[in-house]
Amino acid sequence: MNEPEATPPRPRAIPAPLGRRATVVGAGSFGTALAVLLVRAGLRTTLQTRTPEQAAELARARENLAYLPGLELPSALRVEPASEGVARADYVFLAVPSRELAGVVHTLRRGALGRRTALVSVAKGLVPPDGRAPSAVLGDAFGAWRLACVGGPAHAQEMVRWGAALVVGAREEALARALAQLFTRAGVVCEVSNDPVGVELAAAAKNAAALATGATEEQGPNAAGAAAGHIFAEVWRYAEQLGARPESLIGLAGTGDLVATVLAAHSRNHRAGELLAKGVPSAEIPSRIGQAVEALESVPLLAATLERNGVHAPATGALGRLISGELPLQQWVALVRATVPPPARWRRRRPGFWARLRSRLRGMR
After folding, report:
1. Whole-angstrom Cα distance, residue 136 to residue 116?
2. At what angle do helices 294-308 and 268-277 cross, to 10 degrees?
């Protein structure tokens, strides 16, 4: 087995926010929208596709008909296949599903990644097989100082037309603020956070909760709300183990993104939950929707990760069994309605002075 590459030395500075080059790896709906925003922010931007054929089609049509129809690609946006590499980029945005991130890491290690290049993950899921957060996987490979992630309610069509409210999470304050400045220049509100793992786990919880509400809402809003609440609480107990902060899950990256996903007419995760409730096998759902549905793969991985780390997660585990077909819908709903979260951890009050004195006096008798 080859030894892992040494983490590169930390440079003195990160890329400046203006007058630089950016590459977006992944030409799905969000990756395409992100590339358009970066052009608006003044960066020389390249959108990389999975295949040369897809790159040729986007370059010809100047529109992503498959994933983001109706949006004209700016003339300044360069389109090329991912095989071209990212050697000249100052910012590399990884707009790929979390299940593909390990392969992207391998490709980046083989290529010429600049010593000061910042890597920004927009994946909303955990990385198989161990269920780690994307920033943790990328940080081990390339150094945490250059890693950031993006979360928050950001439906692609709305983001490029009317704006969004994003969250940038990074260990390095300068990197987080540089990225936030880019998004602000593109007309997008952006919060900065020093809790990237919390932001990413909030996104994982959002995906699972959106799928759960879709699978449960026909049974009533109380059941759907309970499903989402249980899943967020279960993921939070794991996030707490990793040192995440509660505001990462209750703010824009968590509950804000959940509301946007549930209300979006074209939400893949919510729609997938609705199809599960109608008895459609999970293997058939992506073809019905026309795109990959990350939650169908990420929820079982999330459930296994929680169990492996000793987190009692009945709702998330049951949702994973619903996806696999092991648990019927009525049993899933019954479990959601009957689940009671762990009791609060009450703090015992320290006895007052007089109570302590009486206790000592009794002991002296």
Report:
1. 18
2. 80
Confirm if 128 and 99 have CB atoms less than 8 A apart: yes
Token pair, residue 289, equals: 């929707």
Burial class (CB in 10 A: 0-12, 13-18, 19+), 314: middle
Per-residue pLDDT reduced to its tens digit, 307-326: 999 999 999 999 999 999 99
Digit-coded pLDDT (tens) for 138-155: 999 999 999 999 999 988
Burial (0-12, 13-18, 19+ Cβ within 10 Å), 229:
middle
Catalytic (active-site) positions: 206
Q: Which two tokens stand for residue 286?
A: 């992506």
Side chain identity at 340, as an amino acid letter?
Answer: V
Rounded to whole angstroms, what are the CA distances from 204 to 45, 174, 302? 28, 26, 8
Handedness of CA 42, 48, 52, 58 (dihedral sign): negative
The pTM (predicted TM-score) of the whole model is 0.87
Amino acid at 141: A
- Map residue 165 onto helix, strand or coil: strand
Give SS3 for 224.
helix
**208: Cβ contacts below 8 Å, ≥ 6 apart:** 231, 235, 295, 298, 299, 302, 316, 319
62: left (phi over 0), alpha (psi -120 to 50) or beta: left
Model confidence at 1: pLDDT above 60: no
**Using CA atoms, how far apart are residues 333 and 174, in angstroms rounded to an integer?**
46
Report how far residue 166's alpha carbon sits from residue 160's, in angstroms, rounded to the nearest whole number. Answer: 13
- pLDDT at 162 (0 to 100): 93
Q: Are 347 and 227 in contact (CB under 8 A)?
A: no
59-109 residue pLDDT tens: 999 999 999 999 999 999 999 999 998 988 999 999 999 999 999 998 888
